[in-house]
## 1
Amino acid sequence: MQHESKLPEHFPEDVRYPRVLVEQYLKRFTDPNDLVLDPFMGFGTTLIAAEGMRRRAIGVEFDSTRCEYVKSLLNKSNADWVVCGDSRQISKLNLAQIDFSITSPPYMGKNHTENPFTAYTTTGDGYQAYLQDLKNIYAQIATLLKPGAHVVIEVSNLKHEDGTLTTLAWDLAREVSLVLDFQGEEIIVWEPTYAYGYDHSYCLVFKNNGNSMIQLSK
Ligand SMILES: C[S@@+](CC[C@H](N)C(=O)[O-])C[C@H]1O[C@@H](n2cnc3c(N)ncnc32)[C@H](O)[C@@H]1O
C-alpha cells in the first residue's frame, strides 16, 4: 500500500491510510447509499472513498483545521457530514444508524504521556486509560451499528528506539473485542515501509452481532 497524493505543506505529518484500502472494504461490506462512520476522520480518506463509491459517510475529527480541509475536498452535501467533535462523546452526537465503520485511530506507546484523544495537546492518564477510552468509544459505536454491521480498525504494533515494543494492535483487538465480535486480522503490507519499525499493519475486523457485553467505564 502507498499514499497516492501529497497533503498541503501546512500539514507536515501524513497519517493517512490509502484510499484503495478503504475502497476494498467498502466494496466488501457496504452497498450504494449505505451510511459509513469514521470516528477518527483525519484527512478524510474514508469520506473521499465513500463519495467516489456513492456511499454516505460521517467523519468525526477533533482537529478543526483537518475538518475544514476535508470539507473543502468533498461535494457540499457530503461536507455537511463532517463533524468537528470528540469521539469519546460519540453517543451524544445524535448520529443515525450506521452500516459500516472504518478508521485508523491515533496511536499511543505504552510509555507515552500525551493524550492521543486530544491530538496530543494534553497529558493523558497512561496507556491503560487510552485502551479503556478506545473500548468506551467502540461500546458507544456498537449502539449505533445496524445488526450484522462490520467495523474495521487499521492499526500497527510499535517498535520504540530503546528496543522495546508496544503491542498496540494486539491490545486494541483485545479491548474492542469486549464490545464487538472479533472476526480476525488482515495483514496490510506497505511499500517501501510503514512506520514504527514495521513494513506492515493490520486491519482488525469486527462484527456487531448484538450479543457483546456493552460496558462503559472510565
Ligand atoms: C491516524 S489519524 C486518521 C487518518 C485517516 N485515516 C486518514 O486517512 O486521513 C487519527 C485522527 O484522529 C483524530 N482524533 C484524535 N482524537 C480524536 C477524538 N477524541 N475524536 C475525534 N478525532 C480524534 C486525530 O486528530 C487524527 O486526525
## 2
Amino acid sequence: MCRPQTSKQNYPSQVIAVIEIVDLCKSYGNVDALVDLNLKIKKGEVFGFIGPNGAGKTTTIKILATLTAPSSGEAYVSGYDVTEEPYKVRGLLGYMPDFFGMYDSLKVWEYLDFFAASYRMPQAERRDAIENVLSLTHLEEKAESFVAGLSRGMRQRLCLAKTLLHDPELLILDEPASGLDPRARVEIKELLNGLKDAGKTIFVSSHILPELSDICTTFGIIEKGNLLLSGSKEKIMEAIRGVRRIKAKVLSDTKKAASLIESEKGVGSIKIDGKEVQFEFNGSDLELARVFENLVTAGVLIVGFSEIETNLEDVFMKITRGELA
Ligand SMILES: Nc1ncnc2c1ncn2[C@@H]1O[C@H](COP(=O)(O)OP(=O)(O)OP(=O)(O)O)[C@@H](O)[C@H]1O
Ligand SMILES: [Mg+2]
C-alpha cells in the first residue's frame, strides 16, 4: 500500500528535467495502481511508456496532467510541482487523453477555436495558431467540415491538433494510435516524428511496443504499477544479453542437429522450425563457435548459423513474464 505523504524532499533536482517523478504512489481503495514510481525525462526525449492493460500508464499520465492527485510522492513538470502549481503545469504541457469527447456539432475550426479560447489565447493570435495546427496535422481541407463527419483517424489527429494549439514544450499522449488502422497509425507516427524533430519532449504510452520502438529515444516498461526497467533502447537490450537466440539452418537431418545442439553447454530451450534449429544460448562467442564446429565435425551440413535479432517486443514479453532479474 502507498505510504502516507511525508514532507517534500529536495526536489526537483538542480538540473531541471522536463518530467521528474519521485517515489510516486497511487492507490484506488486497496488497488495499488502505482508503486514508488521514479522517472526522469530530459528535454527533447521521446519516452515510450509501455505496459499491458491495467499497468498504471493512464494513472501516471493523469497525475502529470494534474487531473488526478497522487496518494504520495512527487511529480514535477519543468520544475513545477503538479499538485502545488497545477495551472503552471497545464500551460506547459499538451495532453491527449486515451478517450475524449469531440463536440460533434462544431466545425473543425470552431472546435479548435473553442480550445484556443480556453487556453486564453487572444483572438488575434488564434487564427494563426489554428492554421498552424491544421497544417501540422494535415487537416487543412477539413477546417469547414463538421466534427461529426470525421473518421476515427481524423478525430485522433484533430485531438492532437487541439493538444498543440498553445505550442507546448511537452506532449503527453495516452495511446494516441489506439483503435486506428495501420495506415492511420503510420500517419500518427509521422506526426510524432515531426514533433520530435521540432524538439518537443514527448511522453507517449502504448501497450504495443513495436508501435513506438522506432520513434522513441527512451523507454519505461511498467507492470502492475511497478516500473520494471527504463532507459535507452540499448540499455534495455543490454538487460537481456546473455539469452541470445541462435538459428542454424541445416541441409541434413534436423533432428540429429537438434539433439547434438541440445547436448552442448549453455543451450537452453530449443525448437525445430522446418529446416531451422532455433535455440537459446547463454555463453561466450567462443563457446558458440564450438557448437558450430561440433556440428560440422559430426557431419551436419549447415547453410546458415546466426543470431536471431532480439526485438523490443521479445524484451517486453521476457520482462513482464519475470524472466529477467
Ligand atoms: N478511477 C479508478 N478507480 C479505481 N481503480 C482504478 C481507477 N483508475 C484506474 N484504476 C485501476 O488502477 C490500475 C491502473 O489503471 P490504469 O488505467 O492506469 O492502467 P493502464 O496502464 O492505463 O491500462 P490500459 O492499457 O488498459 O489503458 C488498474 O488496476 C485499474 O483498474
Ligand atoms: Mg490507459
## 3
Amino acid sequence: MQAIAQLRRMLTESRKSLYDRINRLKKEKNVVVLAHYYMSPELQLSTAEGGCADFLGDSLGLSLEAQKTNAENIMFCGVRFMAETALIVSPDKKVFMPDVSSGCSLASSISAKDIIELRKKYPGLPVMGYINTYAETKAELDICCTSRNAVSIAGSLDSDKIIFVPDIFMGQNLKEAISKKYNKDLILWNGTCEVHEQFRNETMNVSDDADVEMLMHWEVPGDTAREQLKIRKGVVGSTGDILNYVKNSNAKKFYLASECDLGESLKKSNADKEFITPCIKCPYMKQNTLEKLLASLESIGTDTEDQYRITLDAHIIERARIPVLKMLQFN
Ligand code: SF4
C-alpha cells in the first residue's frame, strides 16, 4: 500500500513539473493552447486548475478563439483538420500541434475532387461541408458548418435541396431536423466517424432504469437516435447541445453516446449527476499527450519547429477562408 501511495505521489509530482515546464514555455514563446473536449483529462485541465489549457471547447468555439487570439503562436490539441481551420482563420499566426499526424476518419472520407464530381452530378446545388474536412476540401465548399450551427446554416441557404458532406449519420439526423424546420432535403455523402458509428441500438448497453436520459451526438447513426428517443427522453445534437441539455435537465442519470472524454467535462461541471459512458475513445485525438505537447513547445523558434507546424498553400487558405468565415457568422 505504501509503495502504491509513493508511486502516486511521484506521478503527481512529475505531472506537476511537466505542467510547470509547459506553462513556462507558453509564456516565453507567446503561445495560446486550445484543447478540444475529446482530449484526455490531463490535457483538458485549465491553467486555473493547475493544467495548461487556455481554452477548452468544441470545433466552433476553438475556431472562434483561434480567430481572436492575440498570441503569436497557436498550439492546437485536437486533430489536424481543426488546426488547419485555426490557420485558415488566423493566417498571420503560426499554428502547431503536439502531433501533426492526428487524422480523422470523416475528414479522410472525402477529397476536393469528390466535391468537384458532386457538383457535376448535382449542378446548381449548394454544398455544405462539415468542419471535419481537410483544407483542400473546404476550398471547394460553398459553406462550412459545425454540429452547433448546421441546422441554421441549412435554413439560410437559398435552395430546397442541399448537398451535405461528409458524415452520412450526421446527415441522417440533420435531414429530419432540417426537413421539419425548413422543409428542405439533404443529399448525403457516405463518410462516418469511427467513434460515433459504434453507437448501435443492438450493441448499446443502456441501463434498464427508465429515468436515464440519452445524450447523443449528431454523428451517431440516425436509427440509433430515432429509436432511443422513442423510448427515453434525451437529446441528439452538438457537443454544445449536450452540455446545455445536462445543465437544464432535472434528471440525475445520463447515457453518453459520444467520445469518452467528453464525459470528463460533463462530470466536472455536474458533480451531482451520474454519467454512463461506454468509453469509446477517438484514437486520433489520443495521439495528443502532455509529453508531445512539451516537445512541440520546445521546438517553437528552433530548427525543429517544422515537425509540429501546420502549413497550407496560400491559395488554399484564401479559398477555404470563404466557406469558413461564412460559417463563423452563425455562432
Ligand atoms: S471523434 Fe470521429 S469525427 Fe472526431 S476526430 Fe475522431 S474520428 Fe474524427
## 4
Amino acid sequence: MSNGRYDIAVVGGGIIGLSTAMLLARRLPRPKIVLLEKEDDIAQHQTGHNSGVIHAGIYYAPGSAKASFCYAGSKMLRRFCDERGIPYETCGKVIVAVDDDEVPRLMDLHERGRMNGVAGVEVIGPERLREIEPHAAGIRAVHSPETGIVDYAAVARAFAHELTGNGGEVLTRAQVIGLDADREGVRIRTSLGEVTASLLINCAGLYADRLALDMGIEPGLRIVPFRGEFFSLTPESSRLVNGLVYPVPDPRLPFLGVHFTKRIDGTVEAGPNAVLAFAREGYRSLDVDAVELWETLRYGGFWRMARTHWRSGVREQYRSAVKGRLAKSLQTLVPEVRKDDLVNRSAGVRAQAVDVKGRLVQDFAIVQGPKSIHVLNAPSPAATASLAIGSRIVDLAQEY
Ligand SMILES: Cc1cc2nc3c(=O)[nH]c(=O)nc-3n(C[C@H](O)[C@H](O)[C@H](O)COP(=O)(O)OP(=O)(O)OC[C@H]3O[C@@H](n4cnc5c(N)ncnc54)[C@H](O)[C@@H]3O)c2cc1C
C-alpha cells in the first residue's frame, strides 16, 4: 500500500471492478487508483465461475442497459481479446423450441434480438438445426451465429495487467470492512489497514448491497445469491454438442434455463440451474452462513419474491438434488445425453438483486451516491458487457 491516499478506490477484483479500474487508468490524467480485493487473487467469484459465453444480446428488453451494454460490450471485448491475443471462439448458439407452446416465446426472442441489432439472428427449422447441432431435438430454433465463448478469468487477468502497467495498484487480501465518508473523501477500513480515496467505486458483486448500506445508501434492493450448478460432459458425450444449445427461457426469470455450453478449452458443460444459496458464497448445497441466511430471510422483498416464484424454486431445488431430473431436462434438448454422461459437478453463485416489492431486478443497476458509485446489479451478461459497463462508470466518475 503506498501512503494509503488515492484518488479512486475500486472495491472488487471481479471483471467489473477490473474493467472499470483499467479504463479509469487509461482515460483519466494520472489518477492514483487502488483496487481492493478480499481474496488471495482476482476473479475468484462470479468472474471465475461462469459459463464463459460472449452473449450477442438477444434476450434483453430493447432499450435496457443490458441490451445496449451487451451489444456494445461484446464488440469491445472481442477487440480487446484480438489486441491481447486472448483466445475466443465465435461458435454460435441455438435457442431451441421443443414443442408448439414454446414457439411464440421463441418468436418473441427473435424479435428482441432483431430490435437489439444482433447480427445474423434468424429463425430456423429442424433441418437447419440438425446441420448446426446434429444431436439437438427441436421443432424450431433461433440461431445466433455471433455468440461466442471465452475464458473470463483470463480476460480479468489481462485487465489487471493493463491496470498495473498504467500505474494502478491491485491489493489482494484487502477485505473492506468499514466505510465512512467525510469532507476529505471516503475512509476505507480494510483487513490490510486504512486507505482514503476521493471517490469509491463499489463493484463488490455478491456483497455490493452491504457496501452501499455501509456508505449510508439504502439501495432499495438486496443481493440474493442464486447458485448455478454445472456438470461436465464426459469426453465421449461431448461430441453430442458443437457449440451452445439453449432452451427457450421462462420470460419471468432472469435465468436462461439449463443448457449446453462448449468451453474455450473444448470441454462441454451442462447447466447451470438456479437454486437459492444459503450463503452469499455458498458453492455447495450444504454451505450455510447463518448471518447471511438470516439477512435474506428477514428481507420482505425475499418473501414477496418467494410468493411469486415458489413453484419454480421448488422445481429447481428438486432438480438440484436429483441428478436424473437434471438429465431429463437436458434430454429435451439433446435426447442422447444420459445421466452418467454428467460428471465433475461444480458451481457459481449469481449476485441477483431483488427489490423491496420482490421483483428480480432485470436490468443492470448502477447507483450514484456522495463520493461513491455502486454497481448493485450486474448478473449475466455483465461479463460480456464488462467493458461497456466500465466505460459508463468512467463517464459517471468524471462528474465527481
Ligand atoms: C453460474 C454463472 C454463469 C454465468 N454465465 C455468464 C456468461 O456466460 N456470460 C456472461 O456474460 N455472464 C455470465 N455470468 C455473469 C457474470 O459472471 C457476472 O455478471 C460477472 O462476473 C460479475 O462480475 P463482478 O465483477 O460484478 O462480480 P465478481 O466476479 O463476483 O467480483 C466481485 C469481487 O468483489 C470482491 N469483494 C466482495 N466483497 C468485498 C469486500 N468487502 N472487500 C473486498 N473485495 C470484496 C469479491 O471477492 C469478488 O472478487 C454468469 C454468472 C454465473 C454465476
